[in-house]
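Reviewer 2 asked us to include a model.

Predict the structure of this chain.
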Amino acid sequence: MELIFLCPAIKKAIGGVKVIYRQAELIHKLGQSHGFSAAVMHPNTFFFRVRWFDSQVPVKRAFFKLRWMGKPSLSNVSGVFDAQRQMVVIPELWARKYGAQLADMGVSYAIYVQNGYYITKGRPEDLDRAYQSARCILTISEDASRCVALAFPGVESRILRVHCAVDVKRFKPDKAKENIITYMPRKLADHSSKVVFFLRHHLPAHWTIVPIDGMTEVQVADLLERSKIFMAFSHFEGLALPPLEAALSGNQVIGYTGQAAKEYWRPEIFEEIASGDVVGFAQRVLAKVKAIDQAQQFDVPLHTIGNLADTYSEVQERKDMLEFLKVMGLNTKGLPA
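Predicted model (structure tokens):
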């Protein structure tokens, strides 16, 4: 049996795409000795593969027939998947497109909800059918689980919360810290640009603001390991990875939770700003800078970082993936957790 993870073909660095690649690769490795495999599929692409991080996951090719039925267009997947040999994992944004079609074809499928606020996209009747017919509904956070349970009553027993693993060998607090403030300008660009504008006349000259943009995962990790403050501009996120990676790299994190990040928002590391309060945001950053400058040393809360690393670890992710495979009816007997 082959488990196929459908994935959008997005070149820029998106955490959700990385999660799909990494977990598909993990399942593929787990299945090599147990008669199943996994792969990522970017529909309707010839040579696309994500390049900004390393992955050995197999990538399959398939072309879906486009059929225009109002807005947005739908794709006809008839004949693409074999119900006897394949199962499919659909990202929540595509549940409206492919859920009912796969159900009609008799193909077992799961929906992967990495953002509970994306599940509203589509006609309600299409979404209801897709979620009610899914064999499993994966959710990346407690917040995503709540969203699914509220939106689709009756599917609660099929919701499986899974954790993504953050690479603690890459995102770690080992390097000497510098007076650097980092942020991702693509996240709520209007908000971040205003905060940076308000900081410009007040930030001490020995501090620098460095945007994280157009970097590989290795470059991002190196910068986060050297910076002291990360500004989070998360907006309705399924589980914001950059603030978590920044925290594990020893940063103090200031900003928006995006709702889901509340599950890891520890006061020793994180400081929440009400979404939209850009003036208050800038003021809190300046207060943190002042406190760091006045302290004799920059303390990194290693105990809290360790707890976060355990929660979002490879061990926990493996346990979750094994449970997912059991739900999908695949043979996991003898595979150690």
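The chain has ten helices and 14 strands. Residues 2-165+313-327 form a domain with the Rossmann fold fold (CATH 3.40.50.2000). We have added this to the supplementary material.
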